[in-house]
Specification:
single chain, Nucleotidyltransferase, domain 5, two-stranded antiparallel ribbon
Length: 339
């Protein structure tokens, strides 16, 4: 098997996709099949007694419970129905064929967006063929943390046989922190807390000049800086600064005369490690009960979450980024989902 040769699930999935032009099996299936083959020499399915493991009454109780409240957790249903959590889980998956759908927030892509995403993915994959490029690139982004926790979209599940179209309300004007971070293969820079309630071009430029760039220049004289197309990043003074200090060494939204290495494709948060990894990782650790009481506690929780990011984790994130770029290339710029 390919996995026995490379011991890399990502490599197996990529080769499978290229050869058969369909989505590859998930990583758990690949590892399970490899283990079964090594232990038994066969991938044959074991015999079954044919008897249902759960009664029809149990199945119907679980069904009615989740039809009444599809956002209910398995743990809560287990308590209400006086059934083991494993039983509830088995009935949902194996008998009812229900799935736990995540609330995924994505921006609509135009055909031009998809073309730009495809071109960017192809160019990035070519650059990554050079051994040192992956070590040179530094991704950056901002996120807003509300003290009320808002909606942690990574943890919200809605059980059902079809994907829901769910709207969730949130409280306006709750106390919040605007946080900046930069991430490379070997290091995480941040968090940086903006003093302003709204980040604008000059406050963003001040952070670059006085906080981020000195750190990056201390670690390397040949780094490549990435930013997305947010309005503060496109400010004339910000782009002038990058053109002067990092000609052909920055990636972002560009004007006609800008000297960027690559143009960042619009509406593409799914292609930067800050969005597909970092902010979800941090928010999952910050917004745990009880929620922060004030901005000081919120700030401290964010710092602790950043400190939990290890170098080994960053290396795995870079492997994921390579995989996502390849997915974007193969799908001609479509959203990268369900990885």
């Amino acid at each position: 098997m390919e996995y026995a040769k490379t011991t890399s699930v990502i490599t197996v999935q990529r080769n499978f996709r290229r050869q058969f032009e369909v989505d590859p099996p998930d990583k758990n299936s690949i590892k399970r099949w490899h283990t079964q083959l090594m232990e038994t020499g066969c991938l044959c399915k074991g015999k079954s007694t044919g008897r249902p493991s759960h009664s029809e009454e149990t199945v119907d109780r679980v069904r009615q419970s989740f039809l009444r409240s599809p956002m209910k957790s398995v743990r809560k249903a287990s308590r209400e129905l006086a059934l083991p959590r494993s039983t509830v889980w088995d009935v949902l998956h194996k008998r009812l064929k229900f799935k736990a759908y995540k609330l995924t927030l994505v921006q609509a892509l135009t055909e031009n967006d998809k073309q730009l995403r495809t071109v960017f993915s192809v160019n990035m994959l070519e650059f990554l063929e050079n051994d040192d490029f992956g070590d040179r690139i530094v991704f950056s982004d901002e996120a807003t943390f509300h003290i009320n926790g808002r909606v942690n979209r990574h943890n919200v599940r809605i059980w059902g046989s079809e994907h829901p179209r769910q709207i969730i309300e949130h409280v306006r004007d709750s106390p919040k922190l605007n946080v900046f971070a930069a991430i490379c293969r070997r290091k995480l820079y941040g968090p940086f807390f903006f003093a302003e309630r709204t980040v604008r071009g000059h406050s963003y430029l001040d952070m670059l000049e006085n906080w981020l760039m000195p750190q990056l220049e201390e670690d390397s004289q040949d780094f490549i800086f990435q930013q997305d197309g947010a309005p503060p990043h496109f400010h004339n003074d910000v782009r002038w600064y990058l053109n002067e200090h990092l000609p052909q060494r920055w990636i972002g939204r560009t004007g006609r005369d800008d000297e960027a290495l690559l143009k960042w494709p619009p509406r593409s948060p799914d292609m930067t490690p800050c969005d597909f990894f970092l902010w979800g990782f941090v928010k999952d650790r910050v917004f745990v009960p009880p929620l922060p009481r004030d901005l000081m506690e919120l700030r401290e929780r964010i710092r602790e979450a950043f400190a939990a990011v290890t170098r080994d984790l960053l290396m795995r994130v870079w492997t994921e980024m390579d995989y996502r770029l390849d997915i974007c290339r193969v799908t001609k710029g479509a959203h990268i989902e369900s990885l």
